[in-house]
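Before any further analysis, backbone shapes were mapped to integers, which produced the following:

***
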Amino acid sequence: MIEASGIDHIVLHVDNPQKSKKFYTDILGMTVYRDNDRQVFMHAGPHQGLALFKKDGSAAQGGGDMNHLAINVASGTYESLKAELESHGIKVSGRPGDDRCIYFNDPDGHRLQLIFRK
């Protein structure tokens, strides 16, 4: 499993917080610390967090308010992380000439990036 280790705090607006929670916990290894049907708060590493808020039409929606969310990972190679994501049916892409960055989308279309150090 991928172990996320480097998000400060960000809120993403999602259609279904419980579906998105499953993506971020099962695939990216985040842990839930507060959860209800409208909001899910998770830890990504020891001091960072991510919150998923159910879309309600009153705030910026659908990922158009940011370019991407970069997530540090504790270990892995481009090939192993790409294979892990693809095993879950996730389409991934890279950055030409940089084998340390993997891009993909969450279930709501937010663009994510995995960053790892060699």
User: Anything to note?
Assistant: The two ends are 18 Å apart (CA to CA). Residues 9-115 form a domain with the 2,3-Dihydroxybiphenyl 1,2-Dioxygenase; domain 1 fold (CATH 3.10.180.10). The beta strands are 9-14, 31-35, 39-43, 49-54, 69-72, 93-95, 98-105, 111-115.
